[in-house]
């Protein structure tokens, strides 16, 4: 049984879906204020999406964490039912493994949409890390880079990378066709307010439309 067999799409089949996958670094280096503010930001993310009538039906969120292994604390679920898991920090940074796991989840979710005749927007993948992948010398990292690059080329999703202080931006540039952003201090709250606002704007458009994004200058900057 897969994660998605447990989450059948039943409610509001007439509504297009806007999937957002969060790939979150919860390694040991994220302990202390970083993980505290990350949890706070995700809580605000859930509130903002849930308070918007349309986005709460159209946006779906999933979370994959990487630290002491790769975990899926939340499979894809509608924003109105989104209850943020409490994240704890420990372990290393198996980023490549997490990316592959997330991409598999996303493909299964898109298959479920198609089987149910549900339209969907181009999915967003949001990766947040404060380190470098500890599986960079493995086939998993090579495969993750290749699948991200091909997926972006085929417009299967859009990947956004955010580096917290200590992140390896060279690795982030290797996987992303977009320039990664550096988080200003620990402004996770502002980041997730921006993300929820952006997804709300997308959910009000038609699938396939280009939606201009707000400037992330309140929380992000070019890597230093």
Please tag this protein with its features.
224 residues, 20% strand, 6 helices, Rossmann fold, seven-stranded mixed sheet, disordered N terminus, 7 strands, alpha/beta
Structural account:
The protein contains six helices and seven strands. It is of the alpha/beta class and 224 residues long. It has a single domain, classed as Rossmann fold. It has a seven-stranded mixed β-sheet. Helix 1 packs parallel to helix 6 (188-203) and helix 3 (95-115) crosses helix 4. The longest helix is centred in the middle third of the chain and has 21 residues, at 95-115.
Q: Determine the CATH topology.
A: Rossmann fold
Roughly what fraction of the amino acids lie in strands? 15-25%
- Alpha-carbon distance between the termini? 45 Å
Number of helical stretches of at least 4 residues: 6
Order of helices and strands: EHHEEHEHEHEHE
Number of domains: 1
Name the average pLDDT: 93
Radius of gyration: 16 Å
The CATH homologous superfamily is called von Willebrand factor, type A domain
| Poorly predicted runs of 5 or more residues | 1-6
> Which architecture name does CATH use?
3-Layer(aba) Sandwich
- Biggest beta sheet attributes: 7 strands, mixed
The residue fraction in helices comes out at: 25-40%
**In the CATH hierarchy, what is the class?**
Alpha Beta
* Global structural class: alpha/beta
The coarse overall form would be globular
Main sheet: strand order: 3-2-1-4-5-6-7
Quick structural gist:
By secondary structure, this protein is of the alpha/beta class. The chain contains six helices and seven strands, in the order E-H-H-E-E-H-E-H-E-H-E-H-E. 36% of the residues lie in helices and 20% in strands.
